[in-house]
Fold:
Amino acid sequence: QALLEESGGGLVQAGGSLRLSCAASGTIQSINDMGWYRQAPGKQRELVASITSGSMANYADSVKGRFTISRDNAKNTVYLQMNNLRPEDTAVYYCYAGVYSGTYYYTPWGQGTQVTVSS
Structure:
């Protein structure tokens, strides 16, 4: 099984920036899509951004123009650069990866990293 380890969350003032990282390790032959979801208190988990193995990106309307997703296939790592952060971006951010082990497909998730944006 693959494990996803996230880093980069924290507390930042509105207008500031943070960069999240998520590295996959373990039984991995290849990774298809990777991405980030977030969940704010009392709200449903929502997709923030995703990226294919060919680096085609997709974004939620609420983050377009402010967030950039990227990946390093050699390192099995996905990044989320978050600029011009707003208080409504406050949430726990979770990464995921569509992994092929060589015999089966599965989707591991990271443990979540807290992002707090103060006004």
Q: What stands out?
A: The longest strand covers residues 30-39. Residues 35 and 88 are 19 Å apart (CA to CA). The chain has a mean pLDDT of 96. The chain is about 0% helix and 55% strand.
